[in-house]
Amino acid sequence: MTSRLSNSIADRRDDLIALTQDLIRIPTLNPPGQDYRRICEYLDLRLRVHGFDTHLIRAEGTPGDSAKYPRWNIVARREGKYAGDCVHFNSHTDVVEVGAGWTFDPFGGQQKDGRIYGRGACDMKGGLAASIIAAEAFIEVWPDYCGAIEISGTADEESGGYGGVAYLAEQGWFSPDRVQHVIIPEPLNKDRICLGHRGGWWAEIETKGEIAHGSMPFLGDCAVRHMGAVLAEFEDKLFPAMAARTTEMPVVPDGARNSTMNINSIHGGQKEQAEDFDGLPAHCVPDSCRIVIDRRFLVEEPLDQVRDEVTALLEGLRKSRNDFDYEITELNAVLPSMTDQEAPVVRTVAKAIEQVMGKAPTYVASPGTYDQKHIDRIGKLKNCIAYGPGILELAHKPDEYIGIDDMIDSASVMGAALETLLLPGGGSAGS
Question: Which domain holds residue 210?
Fold first, then answer.
């Protein structure tokens, strides 16, 4: 990395802090999909000042899109002076619910002890800010670069990305003939390159029963007890089987090297009482019980096997348990994604990490899916990684934060990657 670019990024420290704080203070909660247009307009004003052509794109008709909560995205592109590749930095703008346990204002962007706190600080507004600073500094130092730089802020990654990157990929924004390298600044730690992620399968299972008076349960059929049998089968058979499987993918943390499943929710019987009602429930045998399962699977496990394994347990109960009946509904399925370690963007960012931090990177894969899946499967663009500042384990936690020095270091890595990919001779023209 040239000293001119390194110094330019370092000089932008206060701007980086302010930009990160501004982004955190826009409460882009998903669900429901709040303030998407507002954050896109903020980025639009910022990037146009630096010569980017911007497009605000609504993903009409995608899950969650409505007049009240439209799914807005921004794609900004700045052409260089000469022909060359396009490097695209993609960040999602949505953040998850706040949750309990905060000691900082979740949308205050407070700075303390070299950290900026807030929901989305780590996942991933700090990464978005770092990519913008890297691009702006690079453009100032090297105005006559080759190719193009793109920056996008996209919706709904936290709920599957269908109103964001998936929609853009379907519309051709990630076509390999217009974008050649993609870096997603997810918080995988500043000295690690994330090559891909495990697969995911989400389904709702409903057990059926028959309603009756609660004082005479023998006249009905309790769907909750049937669900208890399902959970017992999972505990006795499915969870031990998953724990015995490991992957060759470098998934972090270590527990995610195995297959996993989370029981995302459970509900049986009467609906939860309204907040304005504190009376007693009626006395009924529940005729329905539902759970949502979140199954994360390995590249070594075919999706059909994942589905069939759960269905086989349910069919076994149908045969062995009196009056057992169920319905299973697939909610979503995502295949694993993995970029080759020798891909150009991987080698470029690895070199940049060595230049900036003086050590070779660690190669990892993510336990959860992220928008690489859509760039890979829909966009047909394989040259894509996740690289950004932040500690993975802080994502979605109370008192989420991003380290300022980590953002500076990651911005420097991104800047060094731009020098390699967009300058003649890979940035060796001068210091």
Answer: 199-271+280-334
